[in-house]
Amino acid sequence: MRALTAEQFSVADAVGGVRGVVESVAPGLLFVVVYLASGQRLTPALIAAAGAAVVAVVVRLVQRTPVTQAFSGLVGVGIGVIWAWRSGDASDYFAYGLWVNVAYLLATLVSILAGWPLVGLVMGLFRAEGPLSSNGSWGAAVAWRADPVLRRRYALATWPWVAMFGVRLAVQVPLYLADEVAWLGTAKLAMGLPLTALTLWLSWSLVRGSAALPARPRPLPEP
User: Fold this and answer.
1) CA atoms within 13 Å, Cβ hemisphere of 48
2) Residue 100's pLDDT is what?
3) Angle at which helices 118-126 and 193-207 cross, to 10°
4) Nearest Cα to 34, choosing from 188, 181, 194?
5) Could you tell me where the DSSP H helices lie in the chain?
6) CB-CB neighbours of 97 under 10 Å
7) How many helices and strands, by DSSP H and E, does the chain display?
């Protein structure tokens, strides 16, 4: 999400570079491939997915690079593996991801309806005067709410995220209910990083230049 505040949009930065793509794609891809290649045996597929996630974290630890992305992926894969192992249903490997999309869909939609659009919060957090800077403050981070133009712009830029999570659920939930493991895994991969990068670009295009726009002061009450 930090890519929204960049002067130039970079697809590589948006998806975490080549390593980010591999770490994100490998567990799900291996799960589907091993599941089909083993004659739809669940255990080898779960071991392959979990192994890929663990290797990603170990490599980052050995190389002393940030492990946040790899570790968050390990947590997600771990939950999926445990869920599928306990139920014995391969489709349940993807159930956690579906619930995460439900949560994000509700969060982004509610943020717009409540007047605190997610993109506005991200811009406020990561722009130069935001609270994550060395001398930023929360007041500066939400100063955009005093400007109706910025509020509308950030709300508009949040709608692509609502649409992305909604489209994912509209496609993947029927496949999950139909127990179409191969198609579900394929849809998850196709609608993962590629769709996220497209959504980031759309949001970035809609907010481009807004970091340079000061919030309009509130009118003083008449005496």
Assistant:
1) 20
2) 95
3) 80
4) 181
5) 11-14, 17-37, 42-63, 68-87, 95-113, 118-126, 138-141, 148-177, 181-190, 193-207
6) 20
7) 10, 0
- Count the neighbouring beta carbons within 10 Å of the beta carbon of residue 55: 15
Other CB atoms within a 10 A radius of the CB of residue 154 amount to 28
Mean pLDDT by 10 residues, the chain (223 residues): 73 76 90 94 95 91 81 89 94 95 97 93 72 59 82 94 97 96 93 91 83 46 48
- How far is the C-alpha of 123 from the C-alpha of 142, rounded, in Å? 9
Going by C-alpha positions, the residue among 2, 154, 158, 185 that lies closest to residue 80 is 185
pTM given for the model: 0.83
The Cα diameter of the chain in Å comes to 80
Q: Can you tell me the distance from the alpha carbon of 46 to that of 44, in angstroms, rounded to the nearest whole number?
A: 5
Residue 177: which region, alpha, beta or left (left: phi > 0; alpha: psi -120 to 50)? alpha
Tokens representing residue 6 in the block: 């960049």
What is the token pair recorded at 36? 């089909």
Tally of CB atoms within 10 A around 76: 17
- Domain boundaries of the chain, sorted by first residue: 2-212
Residue 170 to residue 18: CA distance in whole angstroms: 29
